[in-house]
């Protein structure tokens, strides 16, 4: 099975900004946080007239809109999601996202290469360790990379989702 990194499309520069999380530093949350988070939360945004709302955010939190949530649910019922309402008080608008609490999987192949700071030079997944899992983050790397199977990629692309990019990851 082929695997891809799934991320927010970096070509989109005018993405709305969350007031509670100034800047774009990623916060890594997994299923161990599920009991500490409310099932539904409101976050507030400041935006310009031309702010865009991609269907996936990877920073500061990994969040997806309903279409992507449904696709992930089709392939993996174990991923925990929490509802997030993105509210703009000035414009009195509300957008709904799902906070994805995706667990890390120990799946690096021995041929992966790293810099001294643990950032990735060459990422290679071990197909025996991945074992047909459809969505996960990678244990042992500093980057908050969401990895999805070809099945998820194809399902998302068929729905014409906006603001997501995919990059194939080598698997041995």
TrEMBL record:
It comes from Anaerocolumna cellulosilytica. This is Immunity MXAN-0049 protein domain-containing protein. It comes from the Bacteria. InterPro entries: Imm11 (IPR012433). Residues 22-169 form the Immunity MXAN-0049 protein domain.
């Amino acid at each position: 099975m082929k695997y891809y990194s799934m991320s927010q499309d970096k070509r989109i520069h005018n993405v709305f900004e969350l007031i509670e999380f100034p800047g774009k530093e990623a916060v890594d949350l997994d299923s161990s946080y599920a009991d500490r988070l409310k099932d539904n939360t409101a976050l507030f945004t400041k935006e310009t007239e031309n702010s865009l709302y991609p269907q996936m955010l990877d920073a500061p939190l990994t969040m997806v809109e309903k279409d992507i949530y449904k696709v992930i649910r089709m392939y993996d019922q174990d991923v925990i999601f929490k509802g997030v309402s993105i509210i703009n008080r000035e414009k009195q608008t509300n957008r709904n996202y799902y906070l994805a609490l995706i667990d890390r999987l120990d799946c690096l192949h021995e041929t992966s290469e790293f810099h001294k700071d643990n950032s990735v030079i060459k990422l290679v997944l071990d197909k025996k360790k991945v074992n047909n899992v459809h969505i996960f983050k990678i244990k042992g790397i500093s980057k908050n990379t969401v990895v999805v199977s070809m099945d998820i990629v194809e399902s998302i692309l068929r729905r014409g989702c906006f603001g997501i990019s995919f990059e194939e990851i080598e698997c041995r």
